[in-house]
Amino acid sequence: MITILSASNRNENLTTLFASRCKSFLEDKNIPSKLFCLSDIPDQISLKSVYDYGNSVFTQIGLDYIQPSEKILFVLPEYNGSMPGILKLFIDALEPKIFVGKKAGLIGVSAGRAGNLRGMDHLTDVLHHLQVHVMPQKLPISNMYAMLDGEKVVDGATLKDIEQQIDRLIQY
Q: Do the beta carbons of residue 142 and residue 112 sit within 8 Å?
């Protein structure tokens, strides 16, 4: 089982378009997968309760999406030169042991030129601390607006790169 985590909580974010395309590639390959979008986190979050692992709104999400998965594909946008704060909050709000031994692949998306390389490096550091094995090949997708036509990823080269990244994760 592979969980795809779309790491933006903005409404109508473009990251979810890329994450959804990843899910389609996995379905085409008959690989069981789940997609969770951080935009689906309930609006009301008590920041004081997120570390109450037994009662946090994140606990059930972790049990449904992270715990049963052998691998996690993070699709993360660039926010202020790094990963979104909501992603770090999400990770922090789950018991660390839920991540131990998992494998992860990373796809960074950005409107700029670097494809969120720095954010993927920051996330890699956090995941290594949690004893997650991060696939060394990371996929930066730059200039993401040029890859889209409405609500669909259409750039052929980018789609090929995404599919290759998924194939690497399947083999990892």
A: yes
Phi, psi of 71 (to 5 degrees): -135, 150
AA identity, residue 2: I
Show the low-confidence residues of the chain (pLDDT under 70). Answer: 46, 48
pTM of the predicted model as reported, rounded to 2 decimal places = 0.91
Q: In this structure, what DSSP letter does residue 139 have?
A: E
**SS3 of 93, please?**
coil
Inter-residue contact 2 to 26 (CB < 8 Å) = yes
Rg (CA), the chain: 15
- Asked if residues 44 and 74 have their Cβ atoms less than 8 Å apart, the reply is no
Structure tokens at 55: 């009662």
Domains of the chain: 2-171 (3.40.50.360)
Residue pair 71/38 in contact (Cβ under 8 Å)? The answer is no
Report how far residue 154's alpha carbon sits from residue 126's, in angstroms, rounded to the nearest whole number: 32
Torsion of CA 12, 162, 112, 3, to 10 degrees: 50
